[in-house]
Specification:
Length: 645
């Protein structure tokens, strides 16, 4: 969304009509909750730097009718008639000093004389360039080697998208730092630290002592061995089911396995520790928690477990590490390790123009291959026949231009695919846990993450993943916080003007759906922005919102033809959506290959575009003939000149 579209969406959410979902269902149909009117979606906070008196603080740079200056006191601190003092440091009087201007206390009105520099920048660099933003309501990344990339390549949708690699993965944790730039004394202080992902990073990081580095390296080698063993089993299964006469599938599988072998941390001549691998497999069978496995069998410290569980595996989002199993932890960790070094130094790719380009690319590909889209009509309910099978979808009626009324319409269908949230009013599984995802979009002035590598060409570019583990005392979070910092390098923010940089910061966390929990997590995200920005960045605009998600899907097992798509939750990677799409696809077409290009459809598309292709060929032939005539003319001219001489 552009900035003005984001504000319009916010107004629609705040002013939407209340929709009541009836518990009693009408026979022969299942009522749906419209996707544009989720009852759980709400705006939690919003603010900007324009005309907000809370942004006027002592020491802030301000603009007055007499020029720029520095605010010496906050409005309302004293009872003097002219209480607000501004040091006009851009002026110099005859005695070499700068004057002090006095203004009234009330500076919150539209005709206020004092405006902060941030408010001026909000007006100049955000409001006047609203169309230069591409903001995501649900930001997402791709693993450089995973289901998403495989699906994009296999379906040729990758031709519609462009990507850039994420520069750094950072963990907010305590480490020894100097109290000040001039002081030699050190203290434990929380700050962003680059997560060591490769063998080089592990041994160069200053976060861990030498003994912990060796333990972490040994565990990462074991994780790579486990990933290779799991992939070998998958390769054998695929070879048995997808063997081809020309051996193309065998070759591609061999390349995939060879690529994994080359990216392992373990030296080629060093044997796999079979005993450690057997212990890991036994812990997986016993359903041991990942935290207990790392502590008992690898003696990892608390800092190392934060790096492994929260930064590399990106698990235990609800803050309860005891519920995060070893199986899930190893699968998430191996997915990260397999994507490392594929493109750039991290395991993630960011789509240009925002993650919304992914859905647009698939929509475009489906339209080319005969897909049909119906806009401005929301689904009302699903029709069920006497045998308990879905037989169609009823669309809501609507009005156009205030006078034209369009009645409800029934579309016959044997299969209906829809988000699980739309079934909340009907068939919700008993005992399903409900969580609330809290998100915050912040537009910052300045660069949030400073690159320590001064020799890099992308020093100032902002493409960073930020992880804040649960339990940070300064922030007060009880759940994991995911952050994503992006800028104009992925075409989602305007390019710098007059040296003013813009960074988009996305934050997300998981909490309980109570009113107290909503207020608490809104404050937690606000504290996170303040802590991360420090003195280097200023938040010019922010929008906080939240919505509910169920841990389990609704109960539609007895209704044939209804396929529910589960939410990917607050995870940053979009790969889980591809896994979910593959699951639904095999329910509908168990004998077909997921996202494989249809030969018949490709031939039909080529036939449709045959005339366009002929025109291109004719134009090419005309241009080629013209080039031949020009070259022939030049050669004749050269021949005449040589004969004359």
């Amino acid at each position: 969304l552009s900035f003005d579209a984001l504000n319009e969406w916010k107004s629609q959410v705040e002013n939407r009509p209340t929709i009541s979902m009836h518990d009693e269902e009408i026979d022969g149909q299942i009522s749906l909750q419209p996707s544009e009117s989720y009852a759980s979606l709400r705006i939690d906070s919003t603010s900007n730097a324009a005309r907000d008196p809370a942004y006027l603080k002592e020491g802030m740079k301000v603009v007055t009718p007499y020029g720029r200056g520095t605010l010496l006191n906050t409005p309302g601190e004293t009872n003097d008639a002219a209480s607000v003092k501004v040091h006009l440091n851009h002026w110099t009087m005859a005695d070499g000093k700068s004057p002090i201007a006095y203004f009234g206390k009330d500076q919150s009105t539209d005709d206020a004389e004092i405006v902060s520099m941030d408010a001026m920048m909000f007006s100049e660099y955000i409001e006047k360039r609203q169309r230069s933003f591409a903001l995501d309501l649900s930001p997402a990344l791709l693993f450089a080697n995973g289901d998403a990339v495989d699906g994009l390549i296999k379906s040729c949708v990758s031709e519609y998208c462009e990507f850039k690699s994420i520069i750094g993965l950072h963990l907010f944790m305590k480490k020894q730092q100097k109290k000040s730039r001039s002081s030699k004394d050190e203290e434990m202080k929380s700050s962003l630290s680059k997560v060591p992902c490769s063998k080089r990073d592990v041994f160069q990081t200053k976060l861990l002592p030498p003994l912990d580095k060796r333990r972490l390296m040994k565990f990462l080698q074991l994780a790579s061995d486990y990933a290779l063993s799991v992939q070998t089993q998958q390769v054998q299964t695929i070879v048995e089911t997808e063997r081809t006469d020309d051996g193309s599938s065998i070759a591609s599988l061999n390349e995939r396995q060879l690529q994994q072998g080359r990216s392992l941390y373990r030296p080629q001549n060093k044997k796999v520790a079979t005993n450690d691998l057997e212990i890991l497999q036994q812990c997986i069978k016993d359903d041991m928690s990942f935290e207990k496995y790392l502590k008992e069998h690898h003696t990892l410290s608390d800092d190392m477990m934060k790096i492994v569980i929260h930064a590399m595996a990106m698990g235990a989002c609800n803050g309860n590490q005891s519920e995060y199993s070893t199986r899930n932890g190893m699968n998430d960790l191996c997915q990260h390790l397999q994507a490392l070094g594929k493109f750039g130094s991290t395991a993630f790719l960011a789509p240009l123009y925002g993650s919304g380009e992914l859905s647009q690319a698939f929509c475009r590909s489906a339209a080319v291959h005969g897909g049909t889209y119906l806009l401005r009509r929301g689904p009302k309910c699903i029709k069920i026949n006497e045998s308990g099978t879905a037989c169609g979808v009823v669309l809501n009626g609507c009005h156009y231009d205030g006078n034209i009324e369009v009645p409800e319409k029934i579309i016959a269908a044997k299969n209906v695919i829809l988000p699980s949230q739309m079934m909340k009013g009907a068939g919700r599984r008993d005992g399903a846990l409900t969580h609330r995802i809290h998100r915050r979009i912040s537009i910052l002035r300045g660069k949030l993450v400073k690159n320590d590598d001064t020799e890099s060409e992308i020093t100032n570019e902002q493409r960073h993943v930020i992880v804040v583990p649960p339990g940070d005392e300064g922030i007060g979070n009880t759940s994991l916080i995911h952050g994503l910092a992006l800028d104009e390098s992925v075409n989602i923010a305007p390019y710098p003007i007059n040296g003013v940089d813009t960074t988009i910061l996305y934050l997300s966390t998981l909490g309980n759906p109570s009113e107290e929990g909503i207020i608490n997590h809104t404050k937690v995200l606000s504290n996170t922005v303040s802590t991360l920005c420090g003195d280097d960045c200023v938040e010019l605009y922010q929008l906080g919102y939240s919505y509910e998600v169920d841990s389990e899907c609704c109960n539609t097992d007895q209704i044939s033809g209804i396929h529910l798509c589960r939410s990917r939750g607050m995870t940053l990677a979009v790969d889980s959506s591809f896994v979910e799409a593959k699951r639904i696809f095999h329910e509908l077409c168990p004998d077909d290959n997921f996202l494989k290009l249809s030969t018949e459809m490709d031939e039909l598309v080529k036939e449709r575009q045959a005339g366009f292709g002929d025109d291109e060929d004719e134009e090419f032939k005309m241009l080629e003939s013209a080039m031949h005539l020009i070259s022939a003319s030049d050669s004749n001219t050269d021949a005449d000149e040589s004969s004359t001489s």
